[in-house]
Amino acid sequence: MRKLILQLQLSVDGFAAATDGSGSWMVWNYGGEWTWDPALQAYHTALIATADDVLLSRKMAEEGFIGHWERMADNTANPQSVFAGHIRDARKVVFTHTLDRSDWPNTVLATGDLTEEVTALKRQQGKNLIVFGGVSFVSALIAARLIDEYHLIINPAIIGRGMPVFDKVKDILGLSLVSATAYPSGITVLHYRYAG
Length: 196
Hints:
There is one protein chain. By secondary structure, the protein is α/β, with parallel strands linked by helices. Helices cover 28% and strands 27% of the residues. The chain has one domain (4-18, 33-194): Dihydrofolate Reductase, subunit A (3-Layer(aba) Sandwich), CATH 3.40.430.10. The protein contains 6 helices and 10 strands, in the order E-E-H-E-H-H-H-E-E-H-E-H-E-E-E-E. Strands 5-4-3-6-1-7-10-9 form an 8-stranded mixed sheet. Helix 1 (38-48) packs parallel to helix 4 (81-89) and helix 3 packs across helix 4 (81-89). The relative contact order is 0.25. The model has no long low-confidence stretch (mean pLDDT 95). This is Dihydrofolate reductase family protein.
């Protein structure tokens, strides 16, 4: 069975975004200039290569996630282009209760129950599934215990308040630490596996 991998940037105090949804406190906020150090860039690119499906919320898709990474993939002078190419080439699965068709390339809609849809995807042949956000979508996946691996990118910032992703967990969700890696940019990547 395929695994669902979460890769998510967080503040030290556990927020995925500021209260207004911004990420100005992140070392790299998915902009044009990749401000992560080369080792962290390589880790990020290697992780996306292990997946051939990217799970998205309708909101992320409509806000331009797919188009952004297609443009980045076409800019081969940018070091993000290899990472972006993996996203462009992966099948995107948009979870929605309001859309009835997809206008995005290489994209399908998942309109049913979250647990049933993700479980069906895990049973398909292929590489892993990966999800990067958004906050409410990731919160729902975590609460439903659908995430198999957590790759938490801890930025060297405390923001005081913001948007949490673990607040919908009802009972203790046990994890096993695979690795903790510090990078020169001040970021630490915590890699956990779901222990349930």
